[in-house]
Structures are given as structure tokens and as C-alpha cells.
């Protein structure tokens, strides 16, 4: 038996409609980090991404991102396979400083939406105003898509990253498929 769990994709597919493509993202390393300002600054330095001090904003460097989810809570995203190094770097940087770092890589999956109609597609199940003047590039937040909790991050004008718990992923993916059919009509 292997020493580590083998992550298997919960979904595999790509869906398209005029102006939007939905695809299941490749596996990535994910952590929930919690800590005070000093811990946040030290963890950000160790992670290689300065964590935002502005509510509901994402910070990125290369393929790593830190999404502000709450006053002392961040979702850290990094390429698959970097989890152990991230844990070690943060543990070394923070030492005895109070904090929490939980690996949630297996708990969640992600869906990437790309195209001019991405915000319209999301609006069919998300109550937020996703107009770029309100939900600007770099904005991230917990919200819902229909009845499922998601974390939504606007990566650029026409690209969204949707984090969803694996158990809700088939539900969200199915609803996105139905919404794509509505956009195609």
C-alpha cells in the first residue's frame, strides 16, 4: 500500500458554449492558512506570495496564489506536488508562532471558466453581481452556485477559477452544463 493517498479526479471533461469554455482544473496543492498579522506575513514570505491585506483579494506569484477568505484565513494554491515543501517552509518560518495550516488538496477540486460569457454563465447560479466594475479582476470570495458553496476567484476579465468541495463537484458541474445549454439557445 502506498504511503500517500493517490488523488483521482472527481470529474474529467470540458464543456463549451458560444463565448465560454468550462474545464476541470488539473490537481493542485491546497492549504487553508489561519493566523494573525505576524503569522500571515511570515507564512506569505515562506510561501512566496505576500498575502493580501485587502479583503476578498487574491495575490499571485507565478503559479502560486493566496486567496483572502476571512480576516485571518487564506486559501493557498500551488502546483501539484509542492505540498510537502510548502508545509515544511511554513513550519520552519513560523516555528512556535500560533497558526493553522491544513492541507485540503483532497477535499476540493476546481473548475476553470474562460471566455467572454463566463460571468453570464456564473450569474445563472450565483447571486453575486459579477460585473467587472463590481467583482473586479483579483477579487475572490466564498459564495454559492445554486445550493453548493464555492470559492470564486476572478483571474482576469474573462477567466474565473471555481473551487468546490469534491462531494459537490458533480452537482456544480451538472448545473454548469445546464446553464451552458441555456447560453447556447
Give a verbal description of the structure.
- It is a single chain.
- This protein has four helices and eleven strands; from the N terminus they run E-E-E-H-E-E-E-H-E-E-H-E-E-E-H.
- It has 185 residues and is of the alpha+beta class.
- It has one domain: Gyrase A, domain 2 (2-Layer Sandwich), CATH 3.30.1360.120.
- The strands form two sheets. It has a six-stranded antiparallel beta sheet with strand order 1-2-8-11-10-9.
- A hairpin with a 2-residue loop joins strand 9 and strand 10.
Structural topology:
Elements: E1 14-17, E2 20-24, E3 28-35, H1 37-47, E4 58-61, E5 64-70, E6 73-79, H2 83-94, E7 99-103, E8 108-114, H3 118-123, E9 140-145, E10 148-156, E11 159-165, H4 169-184
Helix pairs in contact: 1-2
Query: Whole-Å distance between the termini?
Result: 50 Å
Number of helical stretches of at least 4 residues:
4
Work out the strand percent: 35-45%
Largest sheet, in brief, is: 6 strands, antiparallel
Which percent bin holds the helix content?
10-25%
CATH class annotation? Alpha Beta
Quote the CATH topology: Gyrase A, domain 2
CATH superfamily: Probable tRNA modification gtpase trme, domain 1
Shape type: globular
Gyration radius (Cα, Å) is: 17 Å
Q: What is the string of SSEs from the N terminus onward?
A: EEEHEEEHEEHEEEH
Amino acid at each position: 500500500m502506498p504511503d500517500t493517498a493517490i488523488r483521482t479526479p472527481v470529474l474529467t471533461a470540458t464543456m463549451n458554449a458560444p463565448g465560454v469554455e468550462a474545464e476541470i482544473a488539473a490537481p493542485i496543492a491546497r492549504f487553508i492558512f489561519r493566523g494573525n498579522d505576524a503569522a500571515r506575513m511570515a507564512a506569505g514570505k515562506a510561501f512566496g506570495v505576500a498575502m493580501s491585506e485587502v479583503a476578498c483579494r487574491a495575490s499571485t506569484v507565478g503559479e502560486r496564489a493566496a486567496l483572502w477568505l476571512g480576516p485571518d484565513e487564506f486559501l493557498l494554491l500551488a502546483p501539484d506536488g509542492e505540498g510537502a515543501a510548502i508545509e515544511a517552509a511554513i513550519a520552519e518560518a513560523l516555528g512556535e508562532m500560533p497558526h493553522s495550516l491544513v492541507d485540503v488538496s483532497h477535499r476540493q477540486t476546481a473548475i476553470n471558466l474562460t471566455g467572454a460569457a463566463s460571468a453570464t454563465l456564473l450569474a445563472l447560479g450565483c447571486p453575486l453581481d459579477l460585473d467587472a466594475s463590481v467583482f473586479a479582476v483579483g477579487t475572490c470570495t466564498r459564495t454559492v452556485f445554486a445550493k453548493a458553496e464555492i470559492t470564486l476567484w476572478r483571474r482576469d476579465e474573462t477567466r474565473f477559477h471555481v473551487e468546490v468541495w469534491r462531494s459537490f463537484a458533480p452537482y456544480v458541474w451538472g448545473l454548469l452544463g445546464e446553464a451552458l445549454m441555456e447560453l447556447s439557445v
